[in-house]
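Researcher: For the record, we're logging two predictions in this thread. I'll number them. Prediction 1 follows.
Model: Prediction 1, sequence and structure:
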Amino acid sequence: MPAHRDLDFRGGVAVITGAASGIGAALALQLATRGCHLALVDVNDAGLQVTAAQAGARGITVSRHVLDLAQPESAAELLAAVNAAHGRVRVLVNNAGVALGGNFEQVAAADFDWLMSINFGAVVRLSRAFLPLLTAEPAAQLVNVSSIFGIIAPPGQTAYCAAKFAVRGFSESLRHELETAGSTVGVTLVHPGGVRTAIAENSRAPQDASQADLAQAKAAWRRMLVLPAEDAAARIVRGIERREPRVLVGKDAVRAAWVQRLFPVGYWKLVARDIARRMAKTN
């Protein structure tokens, strides 16, 4: 792909999935402040209304789309709705995601497939659906949110890691295809670390998991989710604007990525030790 100037958000349209809360909502507000019109997507209508009202107060056009992205037909439905409301798209942010706790043997196949359909399948379906609109822009950016768990793979996260590693591989390969073709569409792959959102609290759990174990696991992960969503969104917006191919969000993500790079097989022992130290400081 030829060298590009920074992406201009003003007057463009951004589609953001998972926009009812967390990183998605924070991204919506920061892009709205930069003059970018928005198509906001989430299954949570109440949260989506709040985000849309706050973004709209910044003087831009906002459309709301309440959809379950686990459903394959949602991509075509969203494309038609966004086309009718805006007619163009400059940025697509595939941010929506869910979590699923438990060891692999505990996780039901249906739950595993449910997570994959949202965290990975929706990324592929929406990328395919919206690429023609992105390509029609003088410059555009496809933004896929993976995770630090798309670089390292902790125990008890087989489904989540499978999806986030898949997002990483898909995004890198697609970026290389677009660069080879000389496309004006760039791809930004985002790896957030511990961002303070409700994803751990809202995670689905195996039916036979003990409530005490679940409460302990959620409390442990909550202590790791320390970076405010607004700070994470600010870093992501800078990365989109600069058309960066990879964005690591948070010092923990940067640290874990380096450890994995230096110790590609034995990294988890080092990362787990670091996590234990940090959790001990918060107790």
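Researcher: Logged. Prediction 2.
Model: Prediction 2, sequence and structure:
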Amino acid sequence: MLKKVILIVLDSVGVGELPDAYKFGDEGTNTLGHVVEKTSIELPNMWKLGLGNIIPLKTVSSNPNPIGAYGKMAEKSAGKDTTTGHWEIAGLIVEKPFPTYPNGFPPDIIEEFERRIGRRVLGNKPASGTEIIKELGEEHVETGYPIVYTSADSVFQIAAHEEVIPVGELYKMCEIAREILKGDHAVGRVIARPFIGISGNFVRTGNRRDFSLKPFESTVLDMLKQAGYEVYAIGKIEDIFAGQGITNKNHTTNNDEGITATIEAMNIVKIGLIFTNLVDFDMIYGHRNDVEGYAKALKHFDNRLPEIMGKLTEEDLLIITADHGCDPTTPGTDHTREYVPLLVYSPLMKEGVNLGVRSTYSDVAATIAEIFNIGPTKNGTSFLKELPLKVGV
């Protein structure tokens, strides 16, 4: 009987453009495919699960005898951001995209924010996080004015040097922005982006924090919690869901910490869900067009995957997926509208199986709901009965 689900989101590891990618300017994108093609990395442990069976990959061949279930999932929601992707994995379809600000935020928003924090702001434009602190970091240090910027995603980001605006004060500024950004301006996330260093050598720290909208309906996390099951959030999962449906958390800040925390949580959680986001693929490599770094991060996860799989019992189900793409080989630095991989494994499985192309990420939520018998989710189709398990669950 399955009692524990380990759900790992490889943040931004997309597997090819969706049919509507042209609407987002993302024709021809394929995060995983292009990274593998450019670097010729091998991923033997994900290969065992069936990674090379999902899409053609230059150096990850199709596996005739995979031990896992494999497939890919389409995003049904209207967007390609972190919040939208994770909410859909948890069972919510976002039909109206969160607002974006290609020309910066309107004056009334900025003026109200400045009034509430008692300071002017710098920036107020779309920008790369690393580039804008290069551009405005010195002026920020001299004036004490926080740097406000956005991206192609629905985000209001505030960058500040930790010695100029302490992290706690920066978080309070984010809470103020979250209060202001409502209604038509309800962005998906307000993000604290602290940094340190001196002019010419500013570096962002691990004290990032996301202040997300609360999910507009119950997710499978809420359903699990209400039914008395554990929901252990690792990485930025707690932030993405604004704390809703979470019973325990470990706010790790990088992939290696997240993998270690996942393994530790497998010892802690007896019955329930471990939900992990591994952020480095997206935050450090995808948005910075660092193909080699992205490849190394994939290899690092693959190298540590046996540690996770080695702790699985016949009461455990491992699900590996992603929330969107962020193809580092494209000229832009933004998320890309892609299918995401689906790899599923349990020691209970007799053989591998093709789960095909799923019409929504919410199939994951529907499967989790069926495993724990907590009622059907509003969206998604469970693939539990498609898994070749040795015994009934």
